Give the backbone structure.
Amino acid sequence: MSNELAKKYSLYAVANDAAPDSSLEGRQCENAKQPASICSSCSGTGWEFVVDKGVRPCHCRTEVRRAKLLADAFIPKLYSESSLQTYQPSKGNLSQLRAYNYAHTFVRDYPIIDRGILFMGSVGVGKTHLSVSILRGLIEKGISCRFYEYRSLLKEIQNSYNPNTNTTEMSILAPLFEYEVIVLDELGAARPSEWVQDTIGLIINGRYNEKKLTILTTNYLDECQSSGDETLGDRIGVRLRSRLYQMCKTIVVEGEDYRRRFDAQQV
Protein backbone atom coordinates (compact mmCIF):
# COMPACT_ATOMS: atom_id res chain seq x y z
CA MET A 1 0.00 0.00 0.00
CA SER A 2 1.06 3.58 -0.65
CA ASN A 3 2.26 6.23 1.77
CA GLU A 4 -0.98 8.10 1.01
CA LEU A 5 -2.87 5.45 2.96
CA ALA A 6 -0.52 6.01 5.88
CA LYS A 7 -1.58 9.64 5.92
CA LYS A 8 -5.21 8.56 5.82
CA TYR A 9 -4.83 6.66 9.06
CA SER A 10 -2.51 9.15 10.71
CA LEU A 11 -3.24 9.95 14.35
CA TYR A 12 -3.42 13.70 13.91
CA ALA A 13 -5.51 15.83 11.59
CA VAL A 14 -5.03 19.54 11.01
CA ALA A 15 -8.15 21.67 11.13
CA ASN A 16 -9.26 22.90 7.70
CA ASP A 17 -11.57 25.92 7.56
CA ALA A 18 -12.42 25.13 3.93
CA ALA A 19 -13.89 21.75 4.84
CA PRO A 20 -17.06 22.13 6.92
CA ASP A 21 -17.14 18.43 7.84
CA SER A 22 -13.76 18.75 9.53
CA SER A 23 -14.55 21.90 11.55
CA LEU A 24 -14.87 21.87 15.32
CA GLU A 25 -18.13 23.83 15.26
CA GLY A 26 -21.22 21.70 15.63
CA ARG A 27 -19.37 18.45 16.33
CA GLN A 28 -21.09 16.37 18.97
CA CYS A 29 -19.17 13.97 21.21
CA GLU A 30 -20.47 10.43 20.70
CA ASN A 31 -20.59 9.95 24.46
CA ALA A 32 -22.24 13.30 25.17
CA LYS A 33 -25.88 12.45 24.55
CA GLN A 34 -26.80 13.93 27.91
CA PRO A 35 -25.42 17.15 29.41
CA ALA A 36 -24.11 15.27 32.44
CA SER A 37 -21.88 13.06 30.25
CA ILE A 38 -20.03 15.75 28.31
CA CYS A 39 -16.46 14.62 27.70
CA SER A 40 -13.92 16.63 29.69
CA SER A 41 -11.27 16.24 26.98
CA CYS A 42 -13.22 17.69 24.07
CA SER A 43 -16.16 19.46 25.77
CA GLY A 44 -18.58 17.59 23.55
CA THR A 45 -17.02 18.56 20.20
CA GLY A 46 -15.57 15.14 19.48
CA TRP A 47 -12.13 16.67 18.82
CA GLU A 48 -9.30 17.42 21.21
CA PHE A 49 -6.61 20.05 20.71
CA VAL A 50 -2.97 19.00 20.74
CA VAL A 51 -0.42 21.77 21.26
CA ASP A 52 1.64 22.51 18.13
CA LYS A 53 -0.10 19.71 16.20
CA GLY A 54 -3.67 20.81 15.64
CA VAL A 55 -6.58 18.56 16.52
CA ARG A 56 -7.26 14.85 16.58
CA PRO A 57 -10.37 12.74 17.19
CA CYS A 58 -11.10 12.60 20.90
CA HIS A 59 -10.74 9.28 22.69
CA CYS A 60 -14.47 9.29 23.39
CA ARG A 61 -15.17 9.13 19.64
CA THR A 62 -12.52 6.53 18.92
CA GLU A 63 -13.72 4.25 21.73
CA VAL A 64 -17.26 4.25 20.37
CA ARG A 65 -15.98 3.59 16.85
CA ARG A 66 -13.78 0.73 18.03
CA ALA A 67 -16.69 -0.89 19.81
CA LYS A 68 -18.76 -0.70 16.63
CA LEU A 69 -15.92 -2.06 14.49
CA LEU A 70 -15.44 -4.93 16.91
CA ALA A 71 -19.14 -5.81 16.79
CA ASP A 72 -19.12 -5.61 12.99
CA ALA A 73 -16.12 -7.97 12.79
CA PHE A 74 -18.22 -10.98 13.91
CA ILE A 75 -15.34 -12.62 15.75
CA PRO A 76 -16.58 -15.97 17.15
CA LYS A 77 -17.14 -16.10 20.90
CA LEU A 78 -14.60 -18.93 21.09
CA TYR A 79 -11.93 -16.35 20.25
CA SER A 80 -13.29 -13.50 22.37
CA GLU A 81 -10.08 -13.48 24.43
CA SER A 82 -7.66 -14.04 21.54
CA SER A 83 -5.11 -11.27 21.09
CA LEU A 84 -1.41 -10.81 20.52
CA GLN A 85 -1.06 -10.41 24.27
CA THR A 86 -2.63 -13.83 24.96
CA TYR A 87 -0.81 -15.77 22.24
CA GLN A 88 2.02 -17.81 23.73
CA PRO A 89 4.38 -19.62 21.34
CA SER A 90 5.39 -23.05 22.59
CA LYS A 91 8.80 -23.09 24.23
CA GLY A 92 11.50 -23.57 21.62
CA ASN A 93 9.03 -23.46 18.69
CA LEU A 94 10.65 -21.06 16.24
CA SER A 95 7.86 -21.34 13.65
CA GLN A 96 5.28 -20.10 16.16
CA LEU A 97 7.60 -17.34 17.32
CA ARG A 98 8.16 -16.21 13.73
CA ALA A 99 4.41 -16.27 13.06
CA TYR A 100 3.77 -14.19 16.18
CA ASN A 101 6.48 -11.67 15.27
CA TYR A 102 5.12 -11.27 11.75
CA ALA A 103 1.56 -10.79 13.06
CA HIS A 104 2.86 -8.09 15.41
CA THR A 105 4.74 -6.40 12.56
CA PHE A 106 1.67 -6.56 10.32
CA VAL A 107 -0.47 -4.70 12.86
CA ARG A 108 2.27 -2.18 13.63
CA ASP A 109 3.03 -1.33 10.00
CA TYR A 110 -0.48 -1.30 8.55
CA PRO A 111 -1.41 0.34 6.20
CA ILE A 112 2.14 0.29 4.77
CA ILE A 113 1.59 -3.39 3.97
CA ASP A 114 1.07 -4.67 0.44
CA ARG A 115 0.41 -8.39 1.04
CA GLY A 116 -1.91 -10.38 3.25
CA ILE A 117 -1.00 -13.54 5.18
CA LEU A 118 -1.62 -17.24 4.63
CA PHE A 119 -1.13 -19.13 7.90
CA MET A 120 -0.55 -22.75 6.96
CA GLY A 121 -0.18 -25.70 9.33
CA SER A 122 -1.80 -28.61 11.11
CA VAL A 123 -4.71 -28.26 13.54
CA GLY A 124 -4.30 -26.66 16.94
CA VAL A 125 -1.13 -24.64 16.36
CA GLY A 126 -2.67 -21.18 16.81
CA LYS A 127 -3.40 -20.05 13.24
CA THR A 128 -6.88 -18.73 13.99
CA HIS A 129 -5.73 -17.18 17.27
CA LEU A 130 -3.08 -15.19 15.41
CA SER A 131 -5.52 -14.17 12.68
CA VAL A 132 -8.08 -12.89 15.19
CA SER A 133 -5.28 -11.14 17.06
CA ILE A 134 -4.41 -9.22 13.91
CA LEU A 135 -8.03 -8.18 13.44
CA ARG A 136 -8.18 -6.90 17.01
CA GLY A 137 -4.96 -4.96 16.57
CA LEU A 138 -6.23 -3.35 13.37
CA ILE A 139 -9.59 -2.51 14.94
CA GLU A 140 -7.67 -0.64 17.64
CA LYS A 141 -6.30 1.47 14.78
CA GLY A 142 -9.80 2.12 13.45
CA ILE A 143 -9.65 -0.31 10.51
CA SER A 144 -12.80 -2.09 9.34
CA CYS A 145 -12.34 -5.88 9.54
CA ARG A 146 -14.47 -9.02 9.30
CA PHE A 147 -14.05 -12.68 10.25
CA TYR A 148 -15.41 -15.37 7.91
CA GLU A 149 -15.34 -19.14 8.28
CA TYR A 150 -14.82 -20.80 4.90
CA ARG A 151 -17.53 -23.48 5.06
CA SER A 152 -20.10 -21.22 6.73
CA LEU A 153 -19.57 -18.55 4.08
CA LEU A 154 -20.05 -21.02 1.25
CA LYS A 155 -23.16 -22.42 2.90
CA GLU A 156 -24.60 -18.93 3.31
CA ILE A 157 -24.02 -18.20 -0.36
CA GLN A 158 -25.65 -21.50 -1.35
CA ASN A 159 -28.66 -20.75 0.85
CA SER A 160 -29.15 -17.45 -0.96
CA TYR A 161 -30.13 -19.43 -4.08
CA ASN A 162 -33.22 -20.69 -2.28
CA PRO A 163 -36.22 -18.80 -3.72
CA ASN A 164 -37.86 -18.81 -0.29
CA THR A 165 -35.13 -16.72 1.32
CA ASN A 166 -34.89 -12.93 1.30
CA THR A 167 -31.08 -13.02 1.17
CA THR A 168 -29.41 -12.48 -2.19
CA GLU A 169 -26.00 -13.63 -3.30
CA MET A 170 -24.92 -10.04 -3.88
CA SER A 171 -25.92 -8.99 -0.35
CA ILE A 172 -23.50 -11.62 0.96
CA LEU A 173 -20.68 -10.95 -1.49
CA ALA A 174 -20.74 -7.13 -1.43
CA PRO A 175 -19.35 -6.71 2.12
CA LEU A 176 -16.50 -9.07 1.27
CA PHE A 177 -15.12 -6.42 -1.06
CA GLU A 178 -15.75 -3.48 1.29
CA TYR A 179 -13.91 -4.43 4.48
CA GLU A 180 -10.30 -3.27 4.53
CA VAL A 181 -9.10 -6.58 5.98
CA ILE A 182 -10.87 -9.92 6.31
CA VAL A 183 -9.95 -13.27 7.79
CA LEU A 184 -11.01 -16.33 5.81
CA ASP A 185 -10.58 -19.22 8.23
CA GLU A 186 -10.14 -22.88 7.26
CA LEU A 187 -9.45 -22.32 3.56
CA GLY A 188 -9.94 -25.56 1.65
CA ALA A 189 -12.06 -27.22 4.34
CA ALA A 190 -15.12 -27.65 2.08
CA ARG A 191 -15.22 -30.50 -0.41
CA PRO A 192 -13.71 -29.10 -3.63
CA SER A 193 -16.03 -28.63 -6.58
CA GLU A 194 -16.10 -26.37 -9.61
CA TRP A 195 -18.64 -24.11 -7.90
CA VAL A 196 -16.57 -23.88 -4.70
CA GLN A 197 -13.39 -23.02 -6.58
CA ASP A 198 -15.16 -20.48 -8.79
CA THR A 199 -16.84 -18.80 -5.82
CA ILE A 200 -13.71 -18.55 -3.68
CA GLY A 201 -11.76 -17.43 -6.73
CA LEU A 202 -14.28 -14.63 -7.27
CA ILE A 203 -13.92 -13.47 -3.67
CA ILE A 204 -10.14 -13.61 -3.47
CA ASN A 205 -9.55 -12.13 -6.92
CA GLY A 206 -12.11 -9.40 -6.24
CA ARG A 207 -10.35 -8.36 -3.05
CA TYR A 208 -6.99 -8.48 -4.81
CA ASN A 209 -8.23 -6.20 -7.58
CA GLU A 210 -9.55 -3.73 -4.98
CA LYS A 211 -6.20 -3.84 -3.12
CA LYS A 212 -7.85 -5.17 0.03
CA LEU A 213 -5.72 -7.35 2.28
CA THR A 214 -6.83 -10.88 3.14
CA ILE A 215 -5.64 -13.13 5.95
CA LEU A 216 -6.25 -16.83 5.47
CA THR A 217 -5.70 -19.98 7.49
CA THR A 218 -5.54 -23.53 6.19
CA ASN A 219 -4.72 -27.01 7.46
CA TYR A 220 -3.46 -28.02 4.02
CA LEU A 221 0.21 -27.70 3.09
CA ASP A 222 1.86 -27.26 -0.28
CA GLU A 223 3.59 -30.64 -0.05
CA CYS A 224 2.06 -33.98 0.92
CA GLN A 225 3.41 -35.22 4.23
CA SER A 226 2.25 -38.82 3.74
CA SER A 227 0.45 -41.06 1.26
CA GLY A 228 -3.14 -39.99 0.72
CA ASP A 229 -2.63 -36.39 1.81
CA GLU A 230 -4.02 -33.53 -0.25
CA THR A 231 -2.24 -30.26 -0.87
CA LEU A 232 -3.82 -26.80 -0.70
CA GLY A 233 -3.65 -26.73 -4.50
CA ASP A 234 -5.71 -29.91 -4.60
CA ARG A 235 -8.39 -28.31 -2.44
CA ILE A 236 -8.70 -24.87 -4.03
CA GLY A 237 -7.16 -25.34 -7.47
CA VAL A 238 -3.68 -24.65 -8.80
CA ARG A 239 -4.66 -21.31 -10.33
CA LEU A 240 -5.98 -19.86 -7.07
CA ARG A 241 -3.02 -21.21 -5.11
CA SER A 242 -0.74 -19.40 -7.55
CA ARG A 243 -2.64 -16.15 -7.01
CA LEU A 244 -2.24 -16.50 -3.23
CA TYR A 245 1.55 -16.61 -3.60
CA GLN A 246 1.29 -13.08 -4.97
CA MET A 247 -1.41 -11.87 -2.57
CA CYS A 248 -0.17 -13.29 0.71
CA LYS A 249 3.00 -14.12 2.56
CA THR A 250 2.89 -17.83 3.38
CA ILE A 251 3.75 -18.57 7.00
CA VAL A 252 3.98 -22.22 8.04
CA VAL A 253 3.12 -22.78 11.69
CA GLU A 254 4.23 -26.05 13.25
CA GLY A 255 3.69 -27.72 16.59
CA GLU A 256 1.51 -30.09 18.57
CA ASP A 257 -2.26 -29.72 18.81
CA TYR A 258 -2.70 -27.54 21.90
CA ARG A 259 -6.27 -28.79 22.35
CA ARG A 260 -4.92 -32.12 23.55
CA ARG A 261 -3.91 -30.35 26.74
CA PHE A 262 -7.54 -30.25 27.81
CA ASP A 263 -7.66 -34.05 28.03
CA ALA A 264 -4.37 -34.09 29.94
CA GLN A 265 -5.73 -31.55 32.45
CA GLN A 266 -8.78 -33.70 33.16
CA VAL A 267 -6.83 -36.84 34.08
User: Anything to note?
Assistant: Confidence is low (pLDDT under 50) at residues 5-36. The CA atoms of residues 151 and 161 lie 16 Å apart. The beta strands are 47-50, 54-57, 116-120, 145-149, 181-185, 213-218, 248-252. The two ends are 51 Å apart (CA to CA).
